[in-house]
Design goal:
It contains 17 helices and no strands. The protein is an all-alpha fold and about 475 residues long. α2 runs parallel beside α7 and α7 runs antiparallel to α13.
Length: about 475
């Protein structure tokens, strides 16, 4: 029993310095709810203003990620990048409490987007460098646990503060203080690593890849890898034709297409969700509690997602996660149209937005395993660069369309389109499994009658989140 408790404690907290990711994730998760409420209540903005802020932020993140990824390789000072990242949160959140108008808010929020990716590559590389191969699964599990706990703590802090009668603006200073606490922790606890790696090592490590995809699904879009410029030497057209034929037979384009639809759906929904709750009459405390249900459900589902992927297969699990999220969106669409039919706006959103959080946990684990399998015999860094670029484009496009659809149509229309985007990705995941099986047969011969198809990944390839 003592041995099992020790193993459990090492999984939850592999090193004390990983605790610094609790306050910084508390700050970012709480701020994600505060920002749209700030635009709508303090500045009396509209949904289009919320959408504009999201678009500016995501565009800034995309272009800044290319820079910070290269700088992480050129200047391997992980602590410095973390200090810059966490310090920018502290300064940015505090500055947003002082801005006099929406244009100033847009400027500060765009600058935050530029500085946000500074720590994304550094945090993954720091874990790879500070832990030997055998300890990395537990290390990334700890990293994810601290992120989940921080996310729950941040929104619960907002709920408790507003429920106790506090106002919205002081929450910005609370989250700035949490980010400053994380900055202080990084300065005191993070030592320079002995081994120096590059961002491409993240692409070749399954547990690091899973952690990276999980954060991308939460709204951070780290792009430490980016597609190379095309080779325009003589014969480029013939090479492109051969490459196109080969790619059409590979599962990777189908996986990237399905992930693009999923990210587009998430951005569509999330951009309009808090403004919808505000317009539906929910108070600030209730909005924070609904978001807390989403984070808590993620925290409950993540530890089981790895085992489920092994048991039922990654393709089936990614389908279940996508379908569960689509059903949640459809239920919230129905609640927006006829709230009394399902028992009221507050209770329905508490339940079904929580289910959407559990769904993202299942999806993130399964999709990372499928993507890792598809990276076999490929340039992992370039491929993940393309994946991140598509994720960034989906986030920008989703934020833009969300504002347009909700402002000129309705929130119900936006949620419905989000649901259809999710459902449209399901056939792509099934087709990707067929393409993967055919590719394996071309490489190794036909699968035997009694041999099961590929399911999930080998134990050595599983993300350590279970």
């Amino acid at each position: 029993m003592a041995g099992s408790r020790a193993a459990w404690s090492r999984t939850v907290l592999a090193r004390p310095w990983l605790l610094l990711f609790v306050p910084v994730n508390a700050a970012t998760s709480g701020f994600g709810v505060v920002l749209p409420l700030l635009v709508l209540s303090r500045f009396h903005g509209s949904l289009l203003d919320v959408s504009t802020a999201a678009v500016l932020f995501n565009v800034s993140v995309i272009f800044a990620s290319m820079l910070w990824g290269h700088l992480s390789d050129r200047f391997p000072r992980r602590r410095a990048f973390l200090l810059l990242n966490f310090g920018s949160y502290a300064a940015g959140y505090a500055a947003l409490g002082l801005v006099p108008s929406l244009p100033f808010l847009f400027v500060v929020y765009t600058l935050l987007g530029f500085l946000t990716p500074a720590g994304s590559s550094a945090s993954n590389l720091l874990i790879l460098e500070k832990f030997p191969e055998a300890e990395r699964p537990a290390a990334f599990a700890s990293f994810q646990e601290m992120s989940i706990l921080g996310g729950i703590a941040g929104v619960m802090a907002g709920f408790v503060w507003l429920e106790a009668g506090g106002t919205l603006l002081p929450l910005l200073y609370l989250f700035a203080a949490l980010a400053a606490l994380a900055c202080l922790g990084a300065w005191r606890a993070v030592e320079p690593p002995v081994v120096r790696l590059t961002t491409r090592q993240v692409a070749r490590n399954a547990v690091s890849l899973a952690s990276r995809i999980r954060h991308a699904s939460a709204g951070l879009i780290p792009i430490p890898f980016f597609p190379r410029r095309p080779n325009l030497r003589p014969g480029a057209l013939a090479r492109f034709r051969l490459w196109s034929v080969e790619e059409l037979r590979h599962e990777l384009p189908l996986i990237l297409g399905a992930a693009f639809l999923f990210n587009l759906s998430a951005s569509l929904f999330n951009t309009s969700y808090t403004p919808y709750l505000y317009a539906a009459g929910l108070g600030g405390a209730a909005i924070f509690l609904v978001n807390a249900a989403n984070n808590a459900a993620q925290g409950v589902a993540f530890p089981f997602s790895g085992r489920l992927a092994d048991r039922m297969g990654s393709t089936r699990l990614v389908g279940y996660g996508t379908y569960l999220r689509a059903v949640s969106y459809l239920a919230l669409t129905l609640a927006a149209a006829a709230p009394l039919l399902l028992g009221g706006v507050y209770s329905v959103n508490l339940v079904f937005f929580g289910l959407a959080g559990a769904a993202i946990a299942l999806y993130s684990t399964a999709s990372s395993l499928l993507l890792f399998r598809a990276l076999d015999r490929r340039d992992a860094g370039t491929t993940l660069g393309l994946s991140s670029a598509l994720g960034g484009i989906a986030s920008v496009l989703g934020a833009f369309l969300s504002g347009i659809l909700s402002f000129f149509g309705s929130y119900r229309l936006t949620f419905l389109v989000s649901s259809f985007a999710l459902l449209a990705s399901l056939p792509l995941w099934s087709a990707a499994e067929v393409a993967a099986r055919r590719r394996r047969e071309r490489l190794t011969g036909p699968v035997g009658v009694g041999e099961p198809p590929v399911r999930g990944a080998r134990n050595s390839e599983r993300p350590a989140i279970d």
